[in-house]
Fold Helix-turn-helix transcriptional regulator.
Amino acid sequence: MFTEQHSEALAVWAFRTGVWDYLVLPLADTGINEVVTSIEAAAEVGFSQRPQFNKSAHVMLPEEVRFRRSPENEKLLRPAISYLEGHFREKVTEERLAALCKINVTQFSRTFRQTFDVTFQEYLVRFRLNESARLLRNPGASIADVAYLVGFNDPSYYARAFKKYFGVTPSRYRQCLKNDRASMVQDHQVLRSA
């Protein structure tokens, strides 16, 4: 199960209903590799041997995660999200996005918060940080260059925001990626020699 919204109640519900893996997005490369390995192992063992959830029992999704984004709001904000994803490197203002949606700034701000559960500015920063994490996989790009490429004008602010969002500094994140790659290469070599 993949989810962007994590809660203990949702995790308990997922495992009680027979979910095999519970993954919160965004997912690191190691998480993706674990999922692939898990699926391969399941295929070898055979899904028929896995105990199945009793489908006659009615288990409700936890109340705290039973939300639906308003399709009208998503449709209304679609031009703004589209523009933001294409121009996130530039200075993006609420005024510009509100104008694209043909609504005033106050209405845009309120609708955005209701729809995505974060402010426009938080959404933009998270989008930039996720893009920067992707770019950090290239060992040839400096961290300052990555910061500027995704729209941060201050590398030290970028590093603080990155640490707040991911829990590690950009340099530590890159080091973890390097260690994971080395570990995967080493594991692959061990498997080939066996």
